[in-house]
What we know:
Oligomer: single chain
Largest sheet: 5 strands, antiparallel
Strand content: 15-25%
Number of strands: 7
CATH architecture of the largest domain: 2-Layer Sandwich
Number of helices: 5
Order of helices and strands: EEHEHEEHEHHE
CATH class of the largest domain: Alpha Beta
CATH superfamily of the largest domain: Transposase IS200-like
Structural class: alpha+beta
Amino acid sequence: MSSSTMPIVILSSAGTEAGPPRPTSVWSPPLMFTQRKRPAHFPPLEYSNRSVIIFLTVCTHNRRPILANPTVYEHLRQAWEAADEWSVGRYVLMPDHIHMFCSPASWPMRSLASWLRFWKSRAAAAWPCAIEPPVWQRDAWDTQLRAGDSYGEKWEYVRQNPVRAGLTQAPEDWPFQGELNILRWHNP
């Protein structure tokens, strides 16, 4: 039995004179959690006067290395600028995936999922190089940043990706990165 499907045994709070605590009930995770095929996408939370910044990773279909070239780089920047419901901050294009930070461009906040579908569709429809569709994996991985320190830490991790992958000696030498909009963190 794998650790993700192993039942959790809840022990009684106290032992008895006859011995240690005994199991009082057995709980197994619901089937929907043990057989999930795609990441869960929770809507971004809006806190009064706190920034909403999402760290997003988007992969190419079957992780094909089709992104790290100047033509595709410019094509994606244009798609992000046209998809103006969210603002793209810092980003790094790796050969088979993109890491980016984004934030709602206006309030009320529009759906992250619909914005993501829009720019992926727009980019794929006019892809600048001959490739077999589809261009993108269906889903993306996203997480909402909870603190300003997190933005800086995650950016440093993302910046180092080309170095860790052996694509460049220094992060600043990687040509497929940038910042379209400055996303500033603020708390109430």
